[in-house]
Amino acid sequence: MYLESIPRRLGGLGRHLMDAGRGSNERVIVRADLSRDVPHDVTLALRMLAAPAHRVARMKREVVHIVISPGRMLSTDEVENVLRAIEKEYGIPEGSARLVVEHEKGQRARHYHVVYSMVSEATGRALRFNRSGDRDEMLARRFEIELGEKIQPSTRVERTAELLRERGLANLAEIAAQGPVAEKGRRTSKAETRQNDRLGVDQVLLDERLRQAWRQSGNDMSRLRLELDAMGFCLAAGDQRIAGVPIVMLVDVETLKSTSLTRHLNRLALHGDGPRFREIAIGASFGELPPLAETKADLRKDALPRSADAVLIEFDRMVAEMEADGEHAEAAKARKGRARLAARLSAEERDDLRTRQDSVKSRYRQRDRIRRARVNRAFIAAKLFGTREIRKAAFYLVAIGILATGAGLIPALAAAGVAVATIPSYSSARRLRATADWEATLERSQMARELADETRSFFRQRVIRQKAASKAAHAEKTRLRIHRNRKRGAPIPQPPPANRRAGQRSRSIRRGGPER
């Protein structure tokens, strides 16, 4: 049986209790027969249970969430007995309000989530859950014995037997003392189990990938990092330090799950009969590593192109299998589908292309706005100076102003005539608008050409980047293959000569002949 008591704040507890559907609980039942003094609505019930904690100063946790996962189906009476024993162990007053939710998931037995308020209804003070790990373990062993379940391996066998004796259960203590002992660090921790559930990690597959990397490294820690890279892992420096050195964290590139490399290696017993791996020795083997938060941030940025590459790899495998089975027509269709997928732009590339195209359009829009402002200004001026009287007044004002400067009459009249002639009329404004429309038409075609040129330039640069990335990936595969061949003692393949003449020249030099 698995049993854990978790004092906590509400947070997403209601969402977790009612989570049902694909990849989660197949069925969720609010057990009204086991719950006490709370409504059937889970959200409202949780708020009622959390309310007493809000009245206690410096109260950090509002409720206690107890998970009970038995090895077989339990009757209602058996569940009642389990709840009574838990309440007695943790000093929860008899008759306290509680919410019980039952989950049905796959082939496993139904498990239960029980929620109490963190404040005792009798005293108004916070409940105590000190050393809850040992006490949860003791309760789990006790229920396994009383309900006839198989006793699970534990690292706390002696402590469990001692706690049972302290509670006057000597007969159960003797049975628990004979239970199987689990090697410390060999079981998946609760925190790791929660991380697996949150990220959707297949722990069995993850362990097998690490075993494969360890086997291919030849049990050599200096080669392990290359093999981990090939298996889809990367290493980072954790926040916790031992002897001033950050612990080495193993990060799964696909799911971003992070765990201690030393603990993971020890849990899989990859050391054989030798001494267990030590954190300080592992840290010294790999040297300085990037921080865990920075590593995960970089992996999240690269998640989209990495997932697209994974889909293309699956396409290549399917095409190869179809060709091997003689399904050439279907293989040709799959190749076309792969080509369409490979040509599809990522979100980042689409944004880049749109930005470059918008920069071209914005320049033309700005030029068109300035041109329209000139046309509007011409019509405004034509409207202001449209009548003959206003033009005469403007002529006289300009001439008088020039005469006031001391100029002669003839220059003043000539300058006033030129000034009045430059005032736009409706006909000149219409001509300016027609010219502006013609220039805008020409510029639209010019803008289309520039957009096409910019788009071609973008895709040309994209192809160059893809070829460079492909060459880098090929070089990395070649490096790993050479590393494996060197490790196995196989001959290292030599690169072919650049051309036939270069090959002949190299053979001539090796034979001692003249170089042409």
From TrEMBL:
<dbReference type="InterPro" id="IPR005094">
    <property type="entry name" value="Endonuclease_MobA/VirD2"/>
</dbReference>
<feature type="region of interest" description="Disordered">
    <location>
        <begin position="469"/>
        <end position="516"/>
    </location>
</feature>
<protein>
    <submittedName>
        <fullName>Relaxase/mobilization nuclease domain-containing protein</fullName>
    </submittedName>
</protein>
<feature type="compositionally biased region" description="Basic residues">
    <location>
        <begin position="480"/>
        <end position="489"/>
    </location>
</feature>
<keyword id="KW-0812">Transmembrane</keyword>
<keyword id="KW-0472">Membrane</keyword>
<feature type="transmembrane region" description="Helical">
    <location>
        <begin position="393"/>
        <end position="423"/>
    </location>
</feature>
<feature type="domain" description="MobA/VirD2-like nuclease">
    <location>
        <begin position="35"/>
        <end position="147"/>
    </location>
</feature>
<dbReference type="Pfam" id="PF03432">
    <property type="entry name" value="Relaxase"/>
</dbReference>
<keyword id="KW-1133">Transmembrane helix</keyword>
